[in-house]
Automatic annotation (TrEMBL):
<dbReference type="Pfam" id="PF00291">
    <property type="entry name" value="PALP"/>
</dbReference>
<dbReference type="Pfam" id="PF13291">
    <property type="entry name" value="ACT_4"/>
</dbReference>
<protein>
    <submittedName>
        <fullName>Threonine ammonia-lyase</fullName>
        <ecNumber>4.3.1.19</ecNumber>
    </submittedName>
</protein>
<dbReference type="InterPro" id="IPR005789">
    <property type="entry name" value="Thr_deHydtase_catblc"/>
</dbReference>
<dbReference type="InterPro" id="IPR045865">
    <property type="entry name" value="ACT-like_dom_sf"/>
</dbReference>
<dbReference type="GO" id="GO:0006567">
    <property type="term" value="P:L-threonine catabolic process"/>
</dbReference>
<dbReference type="InterPro" id="IPR002912">
    <property type="entry name" value="ACT_dom"/>
</dbReference>
<feature type="domain" description="ACT">
    <location>
        <begin position="326"/>
        <end position="405"/>
    </location>
</feature>
<dbReference type="GO" id="GO:0009097">
    <property type="term" value="P:isoleucine biosynthetic process"/>
</dbReference>
<dbReference type="InterPro" id="IPR036052">
    <property type="entry name" value="TrpB-like_PALP_sf"/>
</dbReference>
<keyword id="KW-0456">Lyase</keyword>
<dbReference type="GO" id="GO:0003941">
    <property type="term" value="F:L-serine ammonia-lyase activity"/>
</dbReference>
<dbReference type="InterPro" id="IPR001926">
    <property type="entry name" value="TrpB-like_PALP"/>
</dbReference>
<dbReference type="InterPro" id="IPR044561">
    <property type="entry name" value="ACT_ThrD-II-like"/>
</dbReference>
<dbReference type="GO" id="GO:0006565">
    <property type="term" value="P:L-serine catabolic process"/>
</dbReference>
<keyword id="KW-0663">Pyridoxal phosphate</keyword>
<dbReference type="GO" id="GO:0030170">
    <property type="term" value="F:pyridoxal phosphate binding"/>
</dbReference>
Length: 409
């Protein structure tokens, strides 16, 4: 069944009061950095942290009484799982969620907290999907597909309606693509409202399944992507023809660009986004000239990122920007030397976070030692100033952090 504009408008009416009508906010600092008028559609503010709340509700609310009594099953590593479990609990529908064995503990526990039965099985998403289909058949459950379902697509399309209600003169909409449910639905809405609106899809370089399918190529690499929410090997059968017809372009972004986008959203806009949620920003950061001077909306489709992963990304970002550095300093092993080093670093404005003083395990003469110092600094130029100060006072110092590979030193 093809999802129509009328289907999406009906979904919007039915979603009133059931999900959050998320804001479309101007990203001031990123707009200045990127040279465009950038607006962010904050689907990370939904109750379960992603746009999946929308399509899940529409699909579950359309179940027959018999289907609702028997229950539903879904397969997901995170966001779709939570959306289905949340609304199933609200509607009194038994829910089984099949999740891969590698699913993050936090996502498993959040899904379980919504009252769903969790089945952890499969070392890949495909294996988990096969298990879910088998359980659905064995237990006569209704399978709720994450994207290849007309009701689900209609629910996701309400994101596009809201964008155009809030900003009718938007010139381009950038949307992450996994299976294509969100992109195909937004495209249906946007091209009807204004055929001149440019629609740009974004895929991870590891999983360019939709663009590969449309262009008849095979560049799929696979692997562990930061954007696991769009790490889909096979695009939707319902979504592909819509995207091929209505979407102007699909760009592929590197993992490093996604990491950078997560950091920029957190630091400059104070927003937490998961990898898939930041993919649209990654596309603009990688090619700002394409969007310069235009009014652009980006869907931040989810914010369910593991806190340990987020912490690592933010720390790596500080290192890339030259605001955290690790120096190795050669010293004579005698009293007072560490105090001199600390004084020199302090006079230049550096802040010592950690010190590693090794006499035994480094390849240095017996009366010498190497000291590794982790510092907070203002930027890469400040790092050079600290190193120059140490060297001028007779302390050989070198940078261990690999800034040069990032182009910051």
């Amino acid at each position: 069944m093809t999802t129509t504009l009328e289907h999406i408008r009906d979904a919007a009416e039915r979603l009133r009061g059931q999900v959050i009508r998320t804001p479309l906010v101007r990203a001031g600092r990123l707009s200045e950095r990127l040279g465009c008028e950038l607006f962010l559609k904050l689907e990370n503010l939904q109750h379960t942290g992603s746009f999946k709340d929308r399509g899940s509700y529409i699909r579950l609310s359309n179940l027959s009484k018999d289907e609702a009594q028997r229950g539903v099953i879904a397969m997901s590593a995170g966001n779709h799982a939570q959306g289905v479990a949340y609304h199933a609990q609200r509607l009194g529908i038994p829910a089984t969620i099949v999740m891969p064995e590698f699913a993050p503990f936090s996502k498993v526990e959040r899904t379980r907290a919504f009252g769903a039965r969790i089945v952890l099985t499969g070392d890949t998403l495909d294996a988990s999907a096969q298990a879910a289909y088998q359980i659905a058949e064995d237990e006569n459950l209704t399978f709720v597909h994450p994207f290849d379902d007309s009701d689900v697509i209609a629910g996701q399309g309400t994101v596009g309606l809201e964008i155009l209600e809030d900003s009718p003169d938007i010139e381009a909409i950038v949307v992450p693509i996994g299976g294509g449910g969100l992109m195909s639905a937004i495209a249906t809405v946007a091209k009807d409202a204004n055929p001149a609106i440019q629609l740009i899809g974004v895929e991870s370089e590891l999983f360019p399944s939709m663009s590969d399918s449309i262009k008849g190529r095979n560049t799929m690499k696979g692997g562990h992507s930061l954007a696991d929410g769009i790490a889909v090997k096979v695009p939707g059968k319902l979504t592909r023809p819509i995207i091929e017809k209505l979407v102007d372009d699909i760009v592929v972004v590197a993992e490093s660009d996604i990491e950078n986008a997560i950091q920029r959203l957190a630091e400059e806009q104070k927003l937490v986004a998961e990898g898939a949620g930041a993919a649209g920003i990654a596309a603009i950061l990688a090619n700002p000239e394409r969007f310069a001077g235009r009014k652009v909306a980006v869907v931040i489709c989810g914010g369910n990122i593991d806190l340990k992963l987020l912490s690592g990304i933010l720390t790596r970002g500080l290192i890339r920007d030259g605001r955290m550095v690790r120096l190795r300093i050669g010293i004579i092993d005698q009293p007072g030397v560490l105090a001199r080093i600390a004084s020199l670093i302090g006079k230049t404005g550096g802040n010592i976070i950690e010190v590693y003083h090794q006499r035994l395990f480094y390849d240095v003469p017996a009366k010498q030692a190497d000291v590794d110092v982790v510092l907070e600094t203002r930027n890469s130029e400040h790092v050079k100033e600290v190193v120059a100060s140490l060297q001028a006072d007779g302390f050989p110092a070198r940078i261990l952090s690999d800034h040069s590979a990032q182009g910051t030193l």
